[in-house]
Design a protein that fits this description.
The complex is a heterodimer of chains A (256) and B (444).
Chain A: E1 10-14, H1 19-31, E2 35-40, H2 43-55, E3 60-65, H3 74-85, E4 91-94, H4 102-105, H5 109-137, E5 140-145, H6 158-176, E6 183-190, H7 210-223, E7 227-230, H8 234-242, H9 246-253
Parallel strand pairs in A: 1-2, 1-4, 2-3, 4-5, 5-6, 6-7
Chain B: E1 2-6, E2 15-21, H1 25-34, E3 38-41, E4 57-60, E5 75-79, H2 84-91, E6 96-97, H3 109-114, H4 122-125, E7 132-139, E8 142-146, H5 152-158, E9 167-174, E10 176-177, E11 182-190, H6 193-203, E12 209-214, E13 226-233, E14 252-253, H7 265-278, E15 282-289, H8 290-294, E16 300-301, E17 312-319, H9 325-337, E18 342-349, E19 363-371, H10 377-390, E20 394-395, H11 405-411, H12 415-425, H13 434-438
Parallel strand pairs in B: 2-4, 3-4, 14-16
Antiparallel strand pairs in B: 1-2, 5-9, 6-10, 7-8, 7-9, 11-13, 11-15, 12-13, 12-18, 17-19, 17-20, 18-19
The chains are: A alpha/beta (256), B alpha+beta (444).
């Protein structure tokens, strides 16, 4: 169960070996989390993340394999993860995502479809199944990792940005549909984070490490914020950026 | 039948449950046979999550509210859903007071037994269940009349067990005789914690009721300054106009929820300062009404809303006299951290009772109200847990909303005994709560 501070005991992490997910899981295990289900593509990476969770205090770790390029299997994956948890799940983290390579993908229908599948279709399909299970439980929390890239789609990563924008707006509507159910939805909008995903990209302003993101997530959970910005200042930065005329927006964003 | 969000008094960690009001024993039995996860709920005054079971069925005991005739000896049989307030309305005019009352009258008799509540007279009279002559308990295996003599294991196993053995439907209680509705109160102010603890240790035995209010926000030589109020029921010849009038309904209400953060370090410090300065250095035999003395916060309905949407929690622990330094260290830790804490209440506990899960142990108990919000608070309270565990002390389930299951096991060494009983009378573990799940009270 979740306690008065929102600290969960049973956690399911979809995309459990991602750097941000691992940083969050470590912090959760250091608090009250004892039972962790990690789902992802690579058994080896999940096992490594699982060992790490145990180092930080988890007593039970199980793993579930899935492929986010197959949204049709998302509901099955959720069922498997909940079965592995064995008890009511307090927190589900959706950390599934694919950054892609915009310039290479632009003329590639298959790659474009893959971006839409992993970043949008899989997560929203999973959410529908999660809604069913968690509303029946009468409590729980879902954290969806969106991105500041979802706020205004940009030339240099529109594939990623548009899919995240879809997920972000879906999640926002989803959260409103949960009122009174005991289930809460929170949306994390991180800026650039130093992870495997962006390795090789130029470091943008307001870049943070995964541990800082995890800190902001812990605070966001304790405060029940629907949208968690990481770092929090991006909320104001993107308020301005979002309202810039297109020419200015392009001048600022196409270069970074 | 409706599904709704249920909270404890602290307004944290809600659970969506199906709430069904029960009116008689047959309905309780019927519900227990039909459901897989269920728990009884009274007036929801526990701070955390013991009176809810997310995704399950919560049995509202307020339908079981009959109050019987009070015998000449002060024995009364009361429905478990009747509140102490309702009982006092009838009993005070007849010259009877409840044997033990919590800091609020707005609790049910069933809840008082399930949490085995204590009051300002614990050092003299013990906790609520010590005055329960018998009760009716409905378990998934049937209805039982239980008393300390007829079925001691089930009786004491139910006391303090937060509803996990079954649904209490009625109880027979021994009331306390009074001749007026007044209390004669002595008030003393102490500039530090050591002063008040010495006075309580040495002098509490001279009073039936005693409680100290401690300022947990002052540091240095005034750390833990306190106001000690102690009293006894007034006799007819001790007041100018003896009356026997029941409690009045609240006059003020908190009509809406102000933003969280209204009660912060600055505002609480200011309140504590004012409260301390208004109290007299020493005053004897002041006449106070029963309500003013026992239930000051009942004058304001919904006062829990003052903490805003994020809610608050109460941290209450008990340690023996051999570990009284734990009280000092806990207050020191809190005052140094600057976490806003108001209404810290310090009391002496007398002997505990036979229940494996009842909270009181002889010595001290300290209770603090803390707003949710400071990012350091979870860690500070985990440290306090460690101090309490090291001192062989414990936290109170009726107040808890954040303890870990590992520490709960250590604090309640007789949990195993309770689980054996639980497995016998509720083998399918139908009776459970979010508290029981969070602290793994009923086992894996």
């Amino acid at each position: 169960m979740e306690n008065a501070f929102g600290q969960p005991q049973n956690v399911v992490v979809l995309g459990g070996s991602s750097d941000i997910a691992r940083a969050i899981t470590r912090k959760l295990c250091a608090a009250r989390t004892s039972n962790v289900v990690l789902a992802g593509r690579s058994q080896k990476a999940l096992d490594a993340a699982g060992d790490e969770a145990k180092d930080y205090g988890a007593t039970t770790v199980s793993t579930v394999l899935f492929d986010a390029e197959q949204p049709e299997n998302a509901a099955k994956t959720i069922d498997e993860a909940f079965a592995a948890a064995g008890e009511p799940v307090d927190l589900v983290i959706i950390a599934v995502g694919l950054l892609g390579k915009q310039e290479e993908d632009e003329n590639d229908p298959e790659a474009t479809w893959r971006m839409a599948a992993v970043n949008y279709a899989w997560p929203v399909t999973a959410l529908a199944q999660l809604r069913k299970l968690m509303v029946a439980q009468g409590h729980g929390r879902i954290l969806v990792i969106s991105s500041v890239a979802s706020v205004r789609v940009r030339r240099t990563m529109y594939n990623y940005g548009a899919a995240k924008a879809g997920l972000d707006r879906f999640a926002f509507g989803f959260s409103q549909g949960l009122e009174g159910t005991g289930v809460k939805m929170q949306i994390l909008r991180p800026g650039y984070v130093r992870t495997k995903m962006i390795a090789g990209l130029k470091e943008a302003p307001f870049t943070t490490g995964p541990n800082e993101v995890a800190d902001y997530v812990m605070r966001g959970i304790a405060n029940d914020s629907t949208i968690i910005w990481s770092p929090p200042i991006l909320r104001y930065v993107f308020f301005i950026l979002r309202h810039l005329p297109n020419s200015l927006w392009r001048a600022v964003m196409d270069r970074t | 039948m409706s599904r709704e969000l249920l909270y404890g008094w602290g307004l944290t960690a809600p659970g969506n449950c199906e709430l069904r009001t029960v009116y008689d024993e047959a309905q309780v039995l019927d519900q227990l046979s039909k459901t897989t996860h269920t728990i009884a709920r009274g007036l929801g005054r526990s701070y955390g999550d013991p009176a809810q079971v997310s995704g399950g069925v919560v049995l509202n005991n307020r339908g079981l509210c009959e109050i019987g005739r009070i015998s000449d000896e002060g024995v009364v049989t009361v429905g478990a859903g009747a509140s102490i307030d309702e009982l006092l309305q009838l009993s005070i005019p007849l010259g009877w007071f409840v044997p033990v009352t919590a800091g609020t009258r707005q609790i049910t008799i069933g809840g008082a037994i399930a949490a085995d509540v204590h009051g300002k007279n614990h050092h003299v009279d013990g906790s609520f269940a010590n005055h329960v002559l018998s009760m009716r308990l409905v378990t998934p295996t049937g209805a039982h009349t239980i008393s300390p003599n007829s079925q001691p294991e089930l009786f004491w196993g139910t006391v303090g067990a937060m509803g996990l053995t079954g649904v209490i439907t009625e109880a027979t209680i021994q009331m306390t005789p009074i001749t007026t509705d007044s209390v004669l109160v002595d008030t003393d102010r102490y500039s530090n914690l050591e002063g008040v603890m010495t006075a309580m240790f040495e002098g509490d035995a001279n009073y039936r009721y005693s409680v100290a209010w401690v300022d947990c926000m002052t540091k240095g030589k005034n750390m833990g300054r306190a106001i000690l109020t102690r009293g006894d029921h007034a006799g007819v010849d001790q007041v100018t106009k003896p009356t026997l009038v029941g409690p009045q309904p609240p006059k003020i209400s908190v009509p809406f929820m102000p933003p969280s953060g209204l009660l912060n370090r600055a505002s609480v410090r200011l309140f504590n300062e004012a409260w301390f300065r208004v109290a007299p250095q020493h005053r004897e035999k002041e006449v106070q009404s029963l309500s003013t003395f026992f239930h000051p916060l009942d004058g304001v309905s919904n006062w829990n809303r003052m903490y805003g949407k994020r809610g608050f929690l109460q941290y209450q622990f008990a340690v023996s006299d051999d570990h009284s330094e734990t009280v000092v260290n806990a207050i020191k830790r809190l005052s140094e951290s600057g976490v806003a804490s108001f209404l810290a209440v310090l009391k002496r506990f007398g002997a505990g009772n036979a229940s494996p899960l009842s909270f009181p142990i002889p010595g001290w108990t300290l209770a603090l109200d803390l707003p949710i919000g400071s990012p350091r608070l979870p860690g500070i309270l985990d440290e306090l847990d460690d101090m309490v565990v090291a001192a062989g002390g414990r936290l109170y389930f009726a107040k808890d909303s954040r303890l870990s299951p590992e520490k709960a096991q250590v604090m309640y060494p007789r949990l195993g005994e309770f689980r054996t009983l639980k497995n016998r009378i509720d083998p399918e573990h139908k009776l459970t709560s979010d508290l029981a799940r969070r602290l793994r009270l009923v086992g894996e």
